[in-house]
Design brief:
By secondary structure, the protein is of the alpha/beta class. It has four domains: 10-207, 2-Layer Sandwich (Nucleotidyltransferase, domain 5), CATH 3.30.420.10; 240-363, CBS-domain (Roll), CATH 3.10.580; 380-547, Beta Polymerase, domain 2; 596-705, no CATH class. The strands form five sheets. Strands 3-2-1-4-5 form a five-stranded mixed sheet, with helices on both faces. A four-stranded mixed sheet has the order 14-13-12-15, sandwiched between helices. A three-stranded mixed sheet has the order 6-7-8. Strand 4 (97-100), helix 3 and strand 5 form a beta-alpha-beta unit.
Length: 713
């Protein structure tokens, strides 16, 4: 069973709808006479997995109760006792989220019966469909189970029997999910948080003597992924572990010669290319593994040893970028069911190889939750499930005290993977709907923090499309407008919401041909308005994630060439930094609203914008803030102490924001760039204040360094 956390979308939670029939209405005193439950999985009731059991209560069944559920004392004469049925029932619950109508009653009954019979019981995570319906339709005259089923147009059966009522509650829950989403409630924790806000309903439960129908979210989210967590695969890159250079043979090499070479070098694969040389384009190679050789020998016997490898090797080879985290290599090998994975550079040069043998220890680690499931997702729903696993991994990485910048790179990698897969699914849907394939080569780009590799846990979309040829509004542009719309719709449904500022490929301003983009960039540089500067802030951080990457990289090179030589443009970028307000109050405290402090405004923005401005001006073609700062230091530009202070404050801000967002997501609160100052210790607050003071003169630094000459020895 997949692990359910507060970040899990409601449609994807592993749940069980439950109902009890009892001897009366006093939850603390009644006895259970029937249990019913049915599993909910993949957004539907699982008709094959249900539980229904009559229970001998050991006390008389009052006639008024029988009048409701129809269960007589004769009906339970041969039924098991609760103690006898309990183990099977608890096993059926399987630690799933329990769903029911007025579920507080059932939870109270189960807890009281467990105590009475000295049975093991732990209150499960739960949702009450009555409360959820109250959120969706607060003015509905009646929120009874029958009324809700009628309102939602659902057919129910066997009402007032435990299984029938459990099925009805499960159907109501599933029907409420899209209505909850319209209210901005998508995840389990958000639903729990919303239910906790219904004080009149909760008071009704309390006055009836019932248990709370929903618990405070986030209390259990650190379990599971933290158990036996090995962060190695999240701290190291494929290039750290790969064997390099690869061993290459020519196509006329015999299988025996290839096996002898593998044995002498203690390797389990060789690559095949016409030149027999390493470090060439990945398309030049086939791969021959020990398993390929054994299968060939099993088929053809000893004669196979004299066959040339050209007839045996496999192509095209599967590869992964050398800067990809190891967890992605593990996931890709698992998905493709292969034991060797080529490693390529930015320019698609085969630089190395990793094998299952290299990753054996990591492959066995149950915490490798972020595998290649995104790459094989067939819908927005499966993308949403994959995305929802990310906060749990981030929690574990925070607990392991992994550098916040590394965690942000992991989040960014998943955003890029989500965008890439959304683009593929969008293009496939275009073809299936009769709109044809792409009219020309194109590239999908992730911009902003996702492009820099500095994304936090609550990103919105920042993406764009560049295509080879075509005029605005023309045939090509119309096709890519549709692609952009579908791609961004998929991303929104998958958990990465639309950009509030409109920076998305569905919008004209963030889509265009190479010529259109170049004209747009030239206009930004030439006009140098505040709006243009904001566009530059996003664009210069781009990373291509799908399609003809060279189109995007050439465009970025054009932007640098135009931007670095324009004095007015440089000054406009610098002026943008002067708009950052003072973070301190008159008494020296941190400016907060409702106890929360905007770290993006007061820390991330000035640091990121300053380093980007200086990078453009001094032709430092790096993407991340850290890489830009390190390169500026190497150039001898300004004070190393000033840049080091920026880097330190940048890391601190990312760390605090990640921690806050992780807590907010787990607890179902709306997450943002604001941190709760009340959650910081005095020393943490002092550290933050000192860090903010150390970057207070960023605008002055940038103005001083914009036109400083540097030597590039």
């Amino acid at each position: 069973m997949a692990s359910t956390t507060g970040a899990t979308p409601l449609f994807a939670i592993e749940a069980v709808a439950v109902d009890t029939e009892t001897t009366g209405l006093d939850a603390a005193k009644v006895r259970i006479i029937q249990l019913g439950a049915i599993h909910i999985a993949n957004g539907a009731l699982d008709a094959e997995r249900f539980y229904e059991q009559l229970i001998a209560p050991g006390v008389p069944i009052p006639p008024p109760s029988t009048a409701i559920h129809g269960i007589t004392e004769n009906a339970v004469l041969e039924a098991p006792t609760l103690k006898e049925a309990w183990p099977t029932f608890i096993a059926f619950l399987d630690e799933r989220v329990v769903v029911g109508h007025s579920i507080g009653f059932d939870l109270t009954v189960l807890a009281a019966e467990a105590e009475r019979n000295r049975l093991a019981w732990k209150k499960p995570r739960s949702l009450c469909v009555r409360l959820l319906a109250t959120i969706v339709a607060p003015t509905l005259a009646n929120h009874s189970l029958d009324a809700l089923a009628s309102w939602l147009g659902l057919e129910t059966r066997n009402r007032h029997q435990a299984l029938g009522d459990a099925e009805a509650a499960g159907l109501v829950f599933l029907a409420l999910i899209p209505k909850l989403r319209e209210k901005g409630i998508r995840t389990l924790a958000e639903a729990e948080r919303a239910c906790l806000g219904l004080l009149p309903e909760l008071n009704r439960h309390a006055n009836a003597g019932w248990d709370m129908p929903v618990s405070e979210p986030g209390l259990d989210d650190k379990r599971g992924v933290l158990d036996r967590f090995d962060s190695y695969a999240y701290r190291h890159r494929t290039g750290d572990l790969m064997a390099s250079p690869v061993t290459v043979v020519t196509p006329d090499t015999t299988l025996k010669q290839a096996l002898d070479l593998m044995a002498s070098r203690a390797i389990s694969s060789v690559f095949v290319s016409p030149t027999g040389q390493p470090n060439r384009d990945v398309r030049d190679y086939a791969i021959l593994t020990e398993r390929d050789a054994m299968r060939r020998i099993a088929k053809n016997g000893a004669a196979a040893l004299d066959e040339v490898v050209a007839a045996i090797g496999s192509r095209p080879i599967h590869t992964i970028h050398e800067n990809a985290f190891l967890y992605r290599a593990i996931g890709r090998m698992s998905r493709l069911k292969i034991r060797h994975l080529g490693v390529h550079s930015d320019s698609d040069i085969l630089t190395g190889v990793v094998s299952a043998r290299d990753l054996l220890r990591l492959r066995a680690d149950p915490a490798i939750a972020l595998n290649d499931v995104i790459e094989e997702s067939a819908s927005a729903e499966t993308l949403a499930v994959a995305w929802s696993s990310l906060p749990g991994v981030v929690n574990a990485l925070i607990a392991e005290e992994i550098d916040a910048r590394v965690i942000c790179e992991i989040v960014s990698e998943e955003i890029r993977a989500m965008t890439r897969r959304a683009a593929v699914l969008a293009a496939e849907s275009m073809i299936s709907d009769g709109k044809g394939d792409a009219p020309c080569p194109y590239a999908v780009m992730v911009l902003g923090s996702g492009g820099r590799g500095e994304s936090l846990l609550v990103p919105d979309q920042d993406n764009a499309i560049v295509f080879a040829t075509g005029a605005p509004g023309g045939t090509e542009d119309r096709w890519f407008a549709e692609l952009g719309a579908r791609m961004t719709d998929i991303l929104d449904a998958g958990g990465i919401p639309y950009c509030t500022g409109g920076v998305m490929a569905r919008n004209d301003a963030w889509r265009g041909s190479v010529d259109t983009w170049k004209d747009r960039i030239d206009g930004w540089v030439r006009r140098s308005t505040l709006e243009d500067a904001l566009n530059v802030d996003i664009f210069f951080d781009l990373t291509p994630v799908h399609g003809a990457r060279s189109l995007a990289l050439d465009l970025l090179a054009h932007a640098y060439d135009r931007g670095r030589g324009n004095v007015a443009f440089a000054k406009a970028l610098a002026r943008n930094l002067s708009a950052v307000p003072e973070p301190f109050t008159m008494l020296g405290g941190l400016k907060a609203a409702g106890g929360r402090f905007d770290l993006k405004l007061y820390a991330l923005f000035p640091i990121v914008a300053a380093t980007r401005t200086l990078a453009i001006r001094h032709n430092v073609r790096r993407q991340s803030t850290k890489a830009r700062i390190e390169e500026l230091i190497k150039l001898g530009l300004g004070s190393e102490a000033d840049f080091t202070a920026m880097l330190h404050t940048h890391t601190l801000a990312l760390s605090l924001m990640l921690g806050q967002q992780s807590q907010d997501i787990a607890s179902g609160r709306k997450s943002s760039n604001l941190i709760d100052l009340n959650g910081l210790s005095r020393s943490q607050k002092n550290h933050l204040k000192q860090s903010l003071k150390s970057i207070s003169h960023i605008p002055t630094i940038v103005r001083d360094l914009l036109f400083k000459q540097v030597s590039r020895g």
